[in-house]
């Protein structure tokens, strides 16, 4: 069967050969057949999307934007005839101005047709045209035969002349210990952020004008050093890391940068300052007599100290033995609160009265959190034998004449001798109640400025045998004197300086590991009082093994935060992120009275709210609500936003806005760990 398609593909014209015969004669003939293709289909407007470009630029009218199709007409014959030219620009064909008013689909397919905007403030331009296959009139648009001109639209975007602007520029200070042993600070969008309404984050460029001096930037995804630039998306995804040079003992660095967009618009150069702190021992060598009692080791933090920081302690016995030659506090974690630069850690030296060789042990700082370890990470302690109660050493010195470059020897003092003034600044770790002027002393604290008679004025002796025990340390606070003793027996306290007017008080000695601090009121020294409020049960206010600055009660360690007041929401965040705890849960009326006292009877946030379900009050720690202390009655329908609880006048509870109220103090608490 001969089809039209097969005949069109055959050579034209076609010939048919034949023979004509009458029986006598034969004649050959040729029948010539000429086929002509018939164009019946109209061209179809398949695409007319228009063009978009920036003012003053040139755009290509490609087949993705403009396309005419016809099954029986080649592209070179599909013609666009321009009826009206653009007003704010010019059409070009193969680089020359379009003059003949028409171009073909083949020109479009070859990307020979372009539009160039002439500039100005125009936002829209266009040209109109009709399409033809040069045989049939009209063309099909959206299924309909069309003979009227159609429009090709051109969207003009205004040229971006505004650079990105900085919306947040902070000082990164959260230091982390990396897997390779170095320290680093992540630079994220929380401390550095730029915005541009017409530029994507991956095209907002931070060009480095001056690299950091004491470290380098690297991309944590690729592992490559960053020398020239990074973008906002990198900051959003937390891939920019500043690595501190471990060989330099510095605590800050700077980087100068300029934020810009792809068109070259650049903002004013800015400085990013990175800050951190480093922790180390104030001294690395100690020599102490065996009968010293308690040896306080001083740990210092230098540099940026407005964030909390932590460091762990590890003991290397060397030749001394834990439990035999010295005892340690169960807590091996030192916490530096914001603004704090010095901490003390006490070691009890055991006095056995036996002649023996000198012993040595080391205390090592490790595992810092939000800080860098300095060069002085190891403190060596040499315990000198007491030699029958008289410690003789070529390194002896008078403590108040101590110089930093010299070794330190701490002596127990005989009656009448002058008291030492330990090095290091004094920090109070407990807030006193307004009703008393006593200074409360917890483990690790050291006071200065007491007279020589303070040490010799009081002694302990065992009941019945007359053996005396000197206090290991004595602190003065106005008219109050705080005596610290270490022992394992039930002892009586008597005033040594006035034999004819002895005043006695029973002092329970718990163990050699615990330091029992009591305040003797003078002249009424008939009894000893706790440095906390005396109406509280003794077993409830013992600091046990809470970190320095934290106070024990009801199975929890508590810390009152006053330096950085906040709303309820910021208090919750601060307790969790900076103090590894929760906003406090109040367990009983006795617990509430104790909290009100340590707060200085000033308002503070607690961890109670009904944010999840109105009227359903819940502790943030998950503890059941077994005690309440509302000012009037439990609120049933809280006002909008007033879903969080503040302890206010006389320790009563009232509701406040969780995020918009004025800032108050708050108490963080965490479960006591044995």
From TrEMBL:
Residues 410-438 are annotated as: Disordered. Pfam families: Cadherin_3 (PF16184), Calx-beta (PF03160), Lectin_C (PF00059). Residues 415-425 have a biased composition (Low complexity). CSPG repeats lie at residues 42-132, 164-260. Coiled coil: none annotated. SUPFAM superfamilies: C-type lectin-like, CalX-like. The keyword Glycoprotein applies. The keyword Cell membrane does not apply. Keywords: Calcium, Glycoprotein, Repeat, Signal. Residues 553-664 form the C-type lectin domain. SMART domains: CLECT. InterPro entries: C-type_lectin-like (IPR001304), C-type_lectin-like/link_sf (IPR016186), CalX-like_sf (IPR038081), Calx_beta (IPR003644), CSPG_rpt (IPR039005), CTDL_fold (IPR016187), FRAS1_ECM (IPR051561). Belongs to the FRAS1 family. This is FRAS1-related extracellular matrix protein 1 isoform X7. It comes from Erinaceus europaeus.
